[in-house]
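Changelog entry

Holo records now carry the ligand SMILES as an explicit input line rather than a separate metadata file. Below, a converted record for NAP, shown in the new format.
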Amino acid sequence: MGSATFTRRRFLQSGAAALGLATLEATPALGRAAEPSGRPARAAGTFLLGGDLPVRRMGFGAMRVTGPGIWGDPPDPAEARKLLRRAVDLGVNLMDTADAYGPEVSERLIWEALHPYPKDLVIATKGGLTRPTRERWDHDARPEHLRQACEASLRRLRLERIDLYQLHAPDPKVPLADSMGELGRLQREGKIRHVGVSNVSVDELRLARSIVKVVSVQNRYNIGDRRSEDVLGVCAADGIAFLPWAPLAGREREAKRSGSVEVLGQLARQRGITETQAALAWLLARSPVILPIPGTSSIAHLEENVAAAALRLTPEELKRIG
Ligand SMILES: NC(=O)c1ccc[n+]([C@@H]2O[C@H](COP(=O)([O-])OP(=O)(O)OC[C@H]3O[C@@H](n4cnc5c(N)ncnc54)[C@H](OP(=O)(O)O)[C@@H]3O)[C@@H](O)[C@H]2O)c1
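Structure line, unchanged by the conversion:
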């Protein structure tokens, strides 16, 4: 997907339409491999991350391969490794993780399951949150911590360079410019290929981009929670990847009022697909810069989710969803 075709002017001119509705076409087939190679994730198309790293738009979130509460080992580590390998077999080549998942467990399982990595696999990890206990997700985006965290992720993942390193969240106690400055230094040293941010506002994104080239944003976004619509707008206008976290949640907030969730459910029933698949199809249609990273601990759910890459909602259906 050539992100360069998505200019700010076009976005401003056509508003929500520029979020990608023009790319839609009706595709009735779902749940079977989108092409003979049996890699259904390919059907979602590709996005050029940072202008030089092609990733399929249907990614995988590896947060839930850990134990309950995103803490410790999963109940069946062998099954978790099988799940990660299955994601790659299905054609997924964007895998999102973080040092805080487990902590360390998600990254370690990725290494155990997938190393030596397929050439086209992009592992996107994060630093900036710590887990002193199961209940706590503490901010720490001090430059010295980010450096330490990035170097630990490099060692854990057995990588010489991390393709996409994301600031997990701005730290209220640390100037964002300091955190981004350190990521820039790590990038210049060759430890990071591309820099991303997560859980940012439009202003924070602007500030971050004044310090370092930001190629992706990861914010909570789904059919029911569109609070980051403004951030998505900036990403769409400027060709920055937008990785919506909690893509399958979405039964709250304005969607309830507008009925979007209800309409999506009706469409899913009419099409004979699951609501989860409909939610992912909606995200893929919402903007060509959206790269969903649905998370699961179940191989059956993974297969169901990736199959949604072949789904196309029609412009009429999208209008009905609102
Ligand atoms: N940057 C951040 O601050 C941040 C925060 C949260 C998450 N993330 C990232 O975003 C990814 C996705 O977010 P998420 O995992 O919180 O939410 P999600 O992908 O919206 O939903 C995951 C939940 O949905 C269930 N599920 C998945 N597929 C299903 C299916 N086909 N049918 C029924 N249930 C299904 C999963 O349970 P089962 O395990 O039973 O399938 C799990 O409980 C994470 O893995 C992580 O990489 C980032």
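Spot-checked after migration. The chain has twelve helices and eleven strands. The chain has one domain: 16-321.
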